[in-house]
# Entry
Amino acid sequence: MPIQYYIFLSLALFSIGVMGTMMRRNAIIIFMCIELMLNAVNLLMVAFSNYWENSNAQIFVFFIMVVAAAEVAVGLAIITLVYRKVNSVDINILNRLKN
Amino acid sequence: MIQYSYLIPLFPLLGFLINGLGWNKIPKSLAGVIGSTSILASFVISLAVFAEVLSPSFQGPFVQHYFDFIQSGTLYIPFAFQIDALSASFLLIITGIGFLIHVYSTSYMHDDEGMVKYFAYLNLFVFSMLLLVMGANYIIMFIGWEGVGLCSYLLIGFWFKNHAYTDAAKKAFVMNRIGDLGFLVGMLLVLYHFHTLSYQELFDTIKTGTDQTTIYTAIAICFFIGAMGKSAQIPLYTWLPDAMAGPTPVSALIHAATMVTAGIYMIARSSVLYNLAPIALDLITWIGLATALLAASIAIKQNDIKKVLAYSTVSQLGFMFVAIGMGAYTTAVFHVITHAFFKALLFLGSGSVIHAMSGEQDIRFMGGLGKKMPITKITFLIGCLAIAGIPGFAGFFSKDEILAHAYAHQPLLFVALLIGALMTAFYMFRLYFLTFTGTFRGTEHQARHLHESPKAMTLPLMVLALFSIIGGYIGLPKVISEKHWLHDFLSTAVTEKELHELSHTTEWLLMGVSVGLVLVMIALAYKATQKAQFTAAKGFGKILENKWYVDELYQAVILTPLHHLGIFLQQIIEKSGIDAFVNNVGTSIHWLSARVRLLQSGIVGSYIFVMVLGIILLLSIGFLSTIL
# Structure
């Protein structure tokens, strides 16, 4: 398969992630969109790694996956705690520090 | 013995440390003993060192190097002491008279709560002065120089609860600092041009070097500005009369053994340099003469017993500077020595009087004290005779020598100095007659309290009186003896200028004229004090009583403009300049941040939107820059 297909796919995934992050208000959805962006990058890296026949990039992919896993653990814990406090995961009501 | 000379300043330093660190533990009686013993030990060693310097086997200056004080690049300042005829003579004066003053203080200060502290300061004072005269280079001298300035400040303001006294202390300190700056600039000039501050190296360089009169003159004048401050010459003399705020023995110490003689010592030490700077010498002569006359005229109209003595010191220092200005350094040192004896005597005597009068210092309220305190009276009389220049007493020989040199130098100078000497005789005997003769004019309470001072106070007086008589025989005038002992002794350390010789007839004549006129002045003083009516002075007398309004002049010319400048800077420059600027920075940032704050809405979506926009912007800039 030509490399362009991968590029377009990951571009689409990334854009979906960006748009989701910007437009949705549900914290969990935003979180998933961030993951989507990360994985779009991962996909691109693997594709290029294959294209150049150089496996260095795949190491980075593993790193990103590990970091993302850690991030998910922390992020979900925060969202759970926030939900317990305010009974909502709507990010627009999380502006209590204002004023 | 001479190699142990480092012990001389060490003992007072130890005394200072013991008394200074244990000021709240040491009993008063012990403090006096510690203080006096340390100086006595120094005196004994000084005697031994002096004897060694005196012996014919002594070859030139003895320089002992202890350690390297400053070593940085080409700058090398060793910590070294130099013992020669000049420093050995000063050592004897400082420790000898210093010791007597310490003994006197044990009695004079025994009621004072700060006595331990007092002795600590006194020892530090003597230590600094010893450092000043023993140093083998200008830096060591400068350390002592600053030390005596500090100690004079501490001791003048010793009774610091009185506001006027602390003001006097500050005045002394500030005036001295002005002079110190001159000295410092002089040292830097020496360092810049000759790359050394050691006396011997410097003087060897000057003696063998090419003629650089401008540089020599500049350095000499800078040094003299330093001497002006320490030795109270016009225009920096006003601190010395105010220094009377301190305890009386301190005045004696400042005026006789230490401090004011530092300027004379420094110039005598630098005689090689001054001989090559005739303009500086002329300047010294004129300033010395002006000071001698001005201070003597002020002393005539003063009514505070210590003020009279203070102005007399300023006047006598003027005489010494005239001698220096004529290049007769040994004569100046001779006068320093005799003056140290009789001025210490007079000050301690006045302390004894003040002690008996329960703190009263105004001679208008004294009188007839001689009957109640015979020892003080007789010793004080000896001091007066010595300072007035009556033949046989110490002051006569040194003062006559200055007058003789002045006549040989310039007859007009002689006349002016003679007028100064006559004024000296007048005010000293006015003081004597008002204090010790006639009837008592004080209160009933004081009259009952009058008593002779204790042994510890009268004994130093008697010793000093003895030296005020015999002290002058170390330098007999040419007409009596061909051999001037002090001159020959000091000539190894001090280079005199070629001085004109006077014929014996002239010298006899000058002596006769001055002695005759002095006697007339004493008679006049006697006559003037018999009326003993103290009306407010009028006309010229009022000017003298107010010290020629010099303090007021300084106030008007220097202090008031400075004060106004300060107010201007505070009100205009600071308030509406700097403060306004700083405040405006604050308010403008406050205003701006109130506007910028609105960007932070708290809506996460908008943050992310701005972030994405930013990233897109950055990427497009990067992209554009690659294709362009």
Notes: Chain B has a mean pLDDT of 88. The first strand of chain B starts at residue 62 and ends at 72. The interface with chain A takes residues 600-605, 608-609, 612 of chain B (CB under 8 Å).
